[in-house]
């Protein structure tokens, strides 16, 4: 491969900060991130890998969810509640610089779990668009639909 695309990655440790410096085309760019220890190497959850760019991933997923629910009627309960939760989480992700703070403020698991939750919510939102639960029923529900136990239903007939 061409040396143009080779990146020399060096790590220098200074007290409570880790500064990553990389050299490319004879110029130096410095990327700093306040760290509370070492870089996260594992989630501790079997089969769940560490997210490479969680802020970008969550922002993209939350925006897709908001676009999907925007296609639903304003008075749809699913739209109201989903929009509220997702927009709150999107604001937290946008305003919080570190992954640890995002996890603490949202308080629903690790950021990798938040990504899975957002992916599942996006899938559900798209299915809800097809199901259209806000429309009236095609036919009237039976009177004993919510009766329990089933034995009583048969006795009524």
Provide structural commentary.
The protein has two domains: about 1-40; about 40-130, no CATH class. It is about 45% helix and about 15% strand. It has five helices and three strands. Strands 1-2-3 form a three-stranded antiparallel beta sheet, with no helix packed on it. The protein is elongated. The termini are far apart. Residues about 1-40 have low confidence and may be disordered. Belongs to the complex I NDUFA5 subunit family. This is AAEL004829-PA.
Give the SSE map.
Layout: E1 8-14, E2 17-24, E3 27-34, H1 54-69, H2 77-95, H3 99-106, H4 111-131, H5 150-156
Antiparallel strand pairs: 1-2, 2-3
| Uncertain runs | 1-38
Could you tell me the radius of gyration in angstroms?
A: 24 Å
Number-wise, the strands total 3
What is the percentage of strand-forming residues?
5-15%
Describe the sheet with the most strands.
3 strands, antiparallel
**SSE string:** EEEHHHHH
